[in-house]
Specification:
Elements lengths: L1 E5 L8 H6 L4 E8 L3 E2 L3 H10 L3 E7 L5 H18 L7 E4 L6 H4 L6 H15 L4 E6 H6 L3 H4 L3 E4 L11 E10 L2 E8 L17 H16 L14 H15 L8 H22 L1
Helix pairs in contact: 3-5, 8-9, 8-10
């Protein structure tokens, strides 16, 4: 899958042009450090979703110690909570020193310290699914990525990816519709649907939508046909299923709103459980 990563520095993104050019996903910056908020985070996610792209997020780290990483993780999680957005792809911890802030502030560039900072952020961003972004050189020399047990997004502006993690940032000069972006490749669609947002699913409809979306992403495998048929957008399919199910649910006499909604959730779970048992 082809994608881009964006921040406030990408002004007035033409999401429809990106979609038309074959871009399928966007990784949107939440912010940086312990207090830096990217004011375009929510509008970028909303714009990408409206154009039919799926989304993840990234947070640029200025952490010098694991204690700093805890604060950054809490700050990042809060940004996503307040935005109330659904992220189909992981949150990525951006570990680098692009502006040499770490170097100027006496950062310990040992592999143990850098790895520990990454691990601390990963532990404290939970329950959100999170991976680590870094350059090829940092992954080879400064991060014990094998010990982290997470997805890796490598940056190597090159015609070939020498790391081959889950995602590859291959250029900073992807030009689409007169705008320049960082270009990315996502190798495995199995990551879809694994990220949960803290602010998601506050209503019965939202809960059902999430259950159906995750069940479809994890268990449905299209049967091969002589002529491949274009798939309908997942959101439309899920919404249609939800409406059909809800329209058939009739409240029992004397039932309260709370008990009616609970029985609706139970019915959806039973339907999905039966569907899996038949496979």
């Amino acid at each position: 899958m082809r994608g881009v990563d964006v921040s406030v520095f990408n002004e007035n993104v033409d999401w429809q042009a990106l979609k038309a050019a074959g871009i399928e996903f966007a990784i949107c910056r939440t912010g940086y450090g312990k207090t830096g908020f990217d004011e375009n985070f929510q509008s970028n996610v909303d714009g990408a979703h409206k154009a039919g792209l799926i989304c993840g997020a990234y947070h640029y780290s200025y952490a010098l110690t694991p204690a700093d990483a805890i604060e950054e993780a809490q700050f990042c999680k809060g940004i996503i909570e307040r935005a109330g957005v659904m992220l189909e792809l992981p949150v990525w911890f951006d570990m680098e020193d692009g502006d040499e802030y770490k170097k100027r502030h006496g950062f310990d560039f040992s592999k143990s310290n850098v790895t520990n900072i990454c691990k601390t952020f990963l532990d404290n961003i939970k329950p959100l699914n999170c991976g680590v972004y870094s350059s090829l050189s940092w992954l080879e020399e400064l991060i014990d990525w094998q010990s982290l047990g997470c997805e890796i997004w490598s940056a190597q502006w090159n015609s070939e990816d020498n790391f081959k993690g889950r995602m590859w940032q291959y250029t900073s000069e992807l030009v689409i519709g007169g705008q320049t972006f960082n270009g990315d490749i996502l190798y495995d669609k199995a990551v879809l649907g694994t990220t949960t947002t803290v602010a998601a699913a506050t209503s019965t409809n939202d809960v059902i939508h999430n259950i159906l979306s995750n069940a479809h992403a994890q268990s449905s495998t299209p049967a091969p046909t002589a002529t491949p048929q274009p798939a309908k957008p997942q959101a439309t399919s899920s919404n249609a299923q939800i409406q059909n199910i809800l329209s058939n649910l009739k409240p029992q006499a004397g039932a309260t709103k709370a008990t009616t909604e609970a029985s609706a959730d139970d019915k959806i779970r039973n339907i999905l459980a039966n569907a899996r048992n038949k496979k």
